[in-house]
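Closing statement on the zinc ion sub-project.
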Amino acid sequence: MHVKKGDRVVVLSGREKGREGVIKQSLPKKERVVVENVNIVKKHVKPMGNRQGGILEVEAALHVSKVMLICPACGKPSRTGHRVNDEGKKVRVCKQCNADVA
Ligand SMILES: [Zn+2]
């Protein structure tokens, strides 16, 4: 996964092309992410226990290949690469400005 929870991303394709948002959930096994306020679907729920039934608006997961990280350093949608930092840890780097992206 090139993006993770808390990242700001832009949607590259599909109905929500061009929308930006923050990843609120990452589903690595499905290679999908849930982006805040992007890909809203209406979900009909039945009343259950003390929960009321009705129509809920929830974010549907998007495939990770449809989103691109917005680099927090340069603010551009960027491809990411990896490098090993001075402490021997693997870090993501922005391919636009070469800044480390945590
Ligand atoms: Zn950058």
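The longest strand covers residues 20-27. With this model delivered, the sub-project is considered complete and its resources will be redirected to Aim 3.
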